[in-house]
């Protein structure tokens, strides 16, 4: 919201003069009121954020009309360059009289004229001179003057007084508009050229303007968007390319809080950790943007941060190809631990373990089902490690045939084999030097390459294919697999010595079905990323919670993307992409076997069918909330709901349900868990 400035002076001519100057410099960014001393009689309180007055004498007269919350600026005045030229043209040794709007303002203006260099004449104040002398000497007036005598020897009109340099700066500071002054030469911005008496201040500001202009040219020349924030997060810099990317004009965001306005730009991380973030991929208005953020630190003091942004278009892709030619096929790790979403205890425990592992230099073996985010963890570990400023090189061992994988890992010399690149090629071991090498799907690596990998890990040196010289390499190895390597070792499908070399720091990523409290949370967070605006029904949420999620987080992301593209505002259970799979399970009830199970269940329950259904319903609720129930807990819940069900009855019902494979009774405090068969039969009976 724009703030208001009240301009107060004796005459409307002076007010208009100051108004014109301020408007020329600050455009429409300040709301202004024009007030003369005649207007004051009809005003109780001046409703403005700031009041500009030309003298202390005037302030005393209007003080009672100004609230305590209002700021005051006492104007330092000067004259125009043409006005000074007229004064300098007066004959040397002349005695002249100066008329201004008050005695105080007259004395102040005489001082300004002397300071501007007009010391060849003697200037007297109209308010102190003898009346008979007024007609004998030339009169200097500023614009129109109601005090002008009917007759005088000579009248020299030097034009209305103007606001001096430091007053303009005071206004800029009070209204947070200094950025507008930094983009222009003040002395050339008025309709009338100003002759300032503040020579030192003008010199300093001119020098700053010169540097600002050079910086401005640079900011508009580089092929990237630039946004700068100070240590509090307030935006002080935004170039044209950034305006195009964010869809806002510089004047709309300057002095606004960048941490709130652009939450996807990792400013917070840079300010908090004092670490640069290189080429993070984010979305702004649905477009992919590559952003790098660097903290501004000098002499151990934080001054803010600067973000450099580029759209990930064809030009950006070409730049990335050029970069890859320089550093090989090494990938930059884009993800951090903050990118791993979840609020469940199991996922946070895995993150805490991984954070501690990142400080070490030992090999890590990440295990987990497909889609659990093993590479996400690997990148986060790299970005939290001492090697974060070096390459993160990733390779999928299952994506290459054996011969090609070997050449990718070890590299080759020119002429090593038919089709070898001229000049040879460095391998991934070399490219990962000082950084991290991530071997995904390590279980797919052929046995003979396992032997060679083991030697590289032991000796920290490689020989390119077709070469004979040893190349020293220093990298941290992170391997990942969705298979049980220990079983593969027992079956002779994976080398035992390599297994123990990899499994120094084991990290297991929990499947999504074991972190049910994260399912809806991740669903909503993913929906935001896809700009989805649909709402889930209660039945849809329930089905999401009991779904098995064999594809884990990757399957959940696919599910959200599917629903976003569906275009429906309300998503019910039958709209979910896996509903056909769930229905196919329920449809098995039509088979003779399933019918027999239902009949057997109904016969077993007999007259106590409602009690059996109650127990199954409570076990289903516990399954959805990832809890375990024992017979005592079920008995207490039944009592609360007014159902007579003794512990002994609960125990009998659970045993009979386990015989029908509808529940699984665990030992101790693990409680009883409803099975998928139990869920299906319960759904069939309650729907029927």
The name of the CATH architecture of the largest domain is 3-Layer(aba) Sandwich
Rg (CA only): 40 Å
> Distance between the terminal alpha carbons, to the nearest Å?
62 Å
The CATH class of the largest domain is: Alpha Beta
Uncertain residue ranges: 185-192, 199-214, 319-330, 584-590
Mean pLDDT: 84
Helix/strand class: alpha/beta
What is the count of β-strands?
Answer: 29
What spatial order of strands do you see in the largest sheet? 13-12-16-15-14
Q: With helices defined by DSSP (H or I, 4 residues minimum), what is the helix count?
A: 29
Written overview of the protein:
This protein folds into 6 domains: 4-76, 3-Layer(aba) Sandwich (Rossmann fold); 78-162; 222-327, PAS domain (Beta-Lactamase), CATH 3.30.450.20; 337-508, Rossmann fold, CATH 3.40.50.300; 512-577, Helicase, Ruva Protein, domain 3; 588-687, Orthogonal Bundle (Arc Repressor Mutant, subunit A). Helix content is 42%, strand content 18%. The protein contains 29 helices and 29 strands. The chain has a 5-stranded antiparallel beta sheet with strand order 13-12-16-15-14. The protein has a 5-stranded parallel beta sheet with strand order 18-21-24-17-25. It is elongated, with a radius of gyration of 40 Å.
